[in-house]
Amino acid sequence: MSSFPFIPEDASSFHGISVTISAGLSLLGCIFIFITYIYFRYTQQIHFKLILFLTLTDLIIGVLFIIGIHGPELNLSDEIRPYLCSIPDTLIHTCIISSFVWTMCIAHMLVQVIRYRNDRVDSYFPFYCLFSLGIPLIILGMLTIRGVIGWKCKDRTMGAVLYGRLLFFIPLVVSYGYNIYCYIVVSNKLSLERFLLTNKDSAHLETLAMAQSTPKILRTYRVFLLAFVVVWVWALLIMILERFDVKIMVLYDINYIFTPMAGFLNSLVYGMNDELRSSVNMALKRMCPCCFVSPGQTWDSHTYEQIKDSGTVNMTIDNQEFIEWRAKLNPKQKLAVSPQRASVQ
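The structure corresponding to this sequence follows.
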């Protein structure tokens, strides 16, 4: 009913193998993010909740891809076998739309927090859920109605196919456009604040450190926008070229590689954020104390706060200014500093 070929017919073909590998990567990435977020109890904060629901949606998409590509290989009756292609294909369409909407919700949350300094953004979570589930369900209903009408009237014209594809690509373009708009808003706000802070005659080094860390947000946002294009531009080109009866097989090859990989890329861009990487590193360091510090380690405030209670540790520190800054902020914390070595006691 989606009128868009998400699932190839032959699981043993190059397209089928590509979908299986890409969907498998998405499943692994989503499962890792889902487990670590629950283990480190990140579900209490609104931005982590949104990322968790985006990951859950991508996880469902990966499962549907696996079912759709390998389901027909099962020894099932001829009455059930056709549904293993049409139903997963339609559900993938719906869940991908939901994934688009979740990214819009994340973008909206960033604008509210950074641009408007809204400290009540947690109250928006029920509306985010309603929006991210309601829009896809409406599109699913429209696809179902069109599928029933087309089946009864035996309508298989290009107009009927275009109807389903427009219900996919219009949300895609709207989602990407809204994310670009939010990136511009966030970028302008952070650039202005960073300029004001770095040119302000102030001794608040912690505020300055925060201002210097803001490019990480913009960098993550830029990577997401790039990944979005890499995943979906091929499908858009396929739809446009098919309107002119042009079929380029290499575009289909690339499309079947990247479309199921959207969940994997979302896990890398959104899920593997600085806080999660830091938490995973600290968990690994607790399990392997001999690997606690690598040569030439550079410190930041978040790393220091996490390890300062771990005891006396000798380590190489390159940033002398940071050591002096922490000594001022924590007079009770003794920092023994030498030109090449420093210890936290």
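Confidence is low (pLDDT under 50) at residues 201-208, 292-322, 333-345.
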